[in-house]
Every structure is written in C-alpha cells, then in structure tokens.
Amino acid sequence: MPGLRARANSEAVHRELQHDATEQTPLIGNSSTQDGPSTSPSDQKSQKVAWLLCLSIFLGASAGGFSMMPLTQLLEDAVCRERGQNTELLPNLDDCKSSWVQSRVAYLLAISGTCDAICGFSAALPWGIVADRIGRKPVVVLALTGGSLVLVWWMIVLALHPALPLWTGWLGAMGLFIGGGTPIMNAAFFGITTDTTTEDERSLAFMRIHVVAMLGNLASPGLASVLINLVGPWPLLFVAVALLLSAGIPFIFIPETLRANGPDQTKTLTFSETLANARRSLSLLKSPWLALLFLTSLLSQPIAPATSVFLLQFVSKRYDIQVKNTGYVQTVSGSVQIFMVLLGLPILSRYILASRKNANSWKIMHAENEQKRDLVLARFSFILVILGTLGLAFSLSLGAFISGLVVLSLGSGYSSYTRGLMSLYVDKEQTSTLFSLVGMIDVLGAMYSGLTFAKLFSVGMDIGGVWLGLPFFVLALVTTVAMVPLFLLRLPESRKRASSHGSTAQNED
C-alpha cells in the first residue's frame, strides 16, 4: 500500500529519546525514557505524524480488502452470464467454476494488474522526483485520488456491461498517471518513516507499518464476506472508494516533513533537471549489494498477489467455495501475520541478539548487531515463505491449504526487512528516491507475475489434480532464487561503525 516521511527538528534530541528502541520494544506504546517522563516537542511531533500515518495506512489497506472480493465476484458473474448467453443456458454455480470461466476471469485480473503496473512504472520516477521537490503531502493525496478513479472506472464498466466490454476496465489504469499510484504511496510512507528513525529503529518502524496494513487486511476480508452475503457486492465497492479517499484526510494534519534546501526548493522542474535527477536516481544501481537487494525485491514481488488477488479465485475453484465466502481464509492469514509481528518476531529478535553471548546457540541464527539481525530475519522469512508456498501447492483439502497459508504468513515480514536493508546503503536525502525505485521494481515484478499466474492457473486447471497448484510450485522456485542474494550480501560495516560512533559522541555531549 502507501508510505510517508517525517523529520524531527533536532536529530540529536530524537536519537537521545529513542535510541533504545529495537525489535524488542512494544510495537504499540509510548517511547518514554527512563531519565524522565517528559518528551520534547520534536518527539511529540514525530509521534503525531506516526499515528496519523498509521491511520492513513489502515484506511487504505482496508479499502483493498473491501474491493478485491466484490470485484472478483462481479467479474465472475459477468463472465458467467456471457457464457450463459453464448450457450443459451442460464448459468449456475458449476458453470461459473468451469475452467473456461475461471481462466477468463484470471486473465482479466492479470491483464488489469499488468496495465496498472505499466502506468505505475511510467509515473513512479517523475512523481517521486516531484515529491522530493515540492513535498509528499500533495503527491500522496493525488495518488490516492488516482487509485480511486481506477476502482470507480471498473464499477462503471461492470454496471454498464455488456454495453461496455469487460476489457475496457483495463483503461482505468490511466488513472494512476495522477499521482503515480501505489509505488509513490509506498515510497512516501517508507521515506517518512526513514526520516523519523535511526538505523537501529528503522526495521521496527517498517514493521509497525506492516502491522497497521495487516490490521486493515485482517479486518476487511472477513467483514466483507459477512456484508456481501447481506447487501451484495456493490455497496462494498462504494465503501472501498470512500475508504481510499478518506486515507488522504490524515495528511491535512501531517506537517510537511521534507527538509527544505533553500528558496529554490519549490521551483518548477525543467526537462533537463528532471533527466539529471533521473540519472542520479538510477546511479543507485551502481552499488552491487543494493543491486542484489533490488533483484530480491523483483523476484519476490509475486508473493503478495499470490496471497491476495489470486488467492480468492484459487480457493474458490479448487475447493468449490463461492468467492464471497473466501474472505474468511484471508482473515486466517492476516491473524497469523499479526501474531508473528506482535509476538513472534520480537521473541525471535531477542534470541538472535542474545545468541552472540551464548556459545551453544545455533550459529545461523546469530547476529552481533541490529543490521545483521535484520539480514538473518530476512533469510528466515524467505525460508518460511518457500515452505508455506510448497504447502499451498500440495494441499488437496482446505484444511491443508490453510496450514500452508499459516506457514507462509509466518514469513510475511520479508518485504519490510528487505527494504530496511536497502536503506543502509543510501544517505537519508536519497531515501525517497530509493523507495521510488523499489516501487518501480515491484511494478516490473507485477508486470510478469499477473500474466504468469493466469497462464499457470489455466494450465493447472487443464491438467487437474495436484497440478492445479502449479502456480504455487513455480512461486516456490522463484522465491528460492530471490533468497539467494541474501546469502551473498555484505553489510556496510564501515558506515554502521561511523553511525554508531556519531551516536555515541552525541550521547556523551
């Protein structure tokens, strides 16, 4: 989903108040120090921005949960009616679960995702540069508006179908040219978080974003399943649009946190300046270690759609469940992710850091500092994702599928840890551009993942049996390749030491 950025007025005060925050710090609670109960104005401002940011993320994540299920249901119904008209038979549930109908729905969603990816990719870097120059608030609000237009256009197409062919829904992706869509929102949220945290705190902050997004994703699918059986799919789509637009309201109260560079900060960009900024942005790829992390991000991108957009249709087809009842399965996944982030990861993090004092500890789970710990947790998360994905591929019953989904969900922090590692290789002034590039790379992954899943799903339905899980077999293989760079990565030791020495000097002063 989205993402932002905030900088305390005094970096020294900010570090002094929060230098003890680690993965073991409660994710929800006050960051007071032992030296006194009071907090500085800059710290209060930072906390205000954090809570407003969390509110925006929650609303946006909830919008996604409310929109995907009714949209899939309406698409399936529309394709099923087309099939019924072609055969002069009234469609029934078995007809709607036929391979022809499910394959058509899969391709409609996949191509829609590819169109979104192309438009988002085209708009991400220019809007990222604009956000760095004029601030993130107006750009994020525009991005939320553009995302709402995409959903509204699909609603118009479905309402007027068959007067409007279903493929015209793909044209709604042009709404992402307004603001840049999800890549820009992600870049903004992660950028704000990076600006308000130290290196040691950053991974925790990213996981807080992850928790809030998961809370939205946890509540909305199950609630959507209840409501869709009571009021039908259309009201839920209107709720989704309202939630997405409401996600921009907190930005009215969030101060602009982009550091001003002088009176020319808000001047209009010329074409040559835009090209120069783009070249400087792409220069980040010269770092071999950052390039490896970009490769991991690119190859791991299919994990998210496989457990969200594609999951609804897969469960509905394989286990003969109506789409409107699949939200409960997603709720199980969200519950496990919340448990892992709130309880599992802090305990595991404590063990990893404590293991440096224990000679008998498992060496592969040893870390001498927070940055190394994040790398260990990233590797561990990918291993869980691979095991869970294989479980989904082999599951012939819904119970087995949910078990595999639980294992996969235990590794859901892979993306947050990867982004946290990326931020170690760039200066703070480059973080917004970095995450814009990450968003673009994720979009590139979305371009190939959607159509690939649709094709593999279609082939799996034709073969039948356990091969219906063919998309997850391939996903496990691709995720294994994505994990390899994490075992080749070398952390920036010199930079970490310099940061540590600087922080120590500040504390001594």
TrEMBL record:
CC annotations in GO: membrane
Basic and acidic residues bias (residue ranges): 12-22
InterPro entries on file: MFS (IPR011701), MFS_trans_sf (IPR036259)
Keyword Membrane: yes
Residue span of region Disordered: 1-44
Residue stretches of biased makeup (Polar residues): 23-44
GO MF entry, a single one: transmembrane transporter activity
Alphabetically ordered keywords of this record: Membrane, Transmembrane, Transmembrane helix
Cellular localization per UniProt: Membrane
CDD domains in alphabetical order: MFS
Bilayer disposition of the protein: Multi-pass membrane protein
Membrane spanning stretches: 49-69, 105-127, 139-164, 170-193, 205-228, 234-254, 289-315, 335-354, 375-394, 400-422, 434-454, 466-489
Protein name: Major facilitator superfamily (MFS) profile domain-containing protein
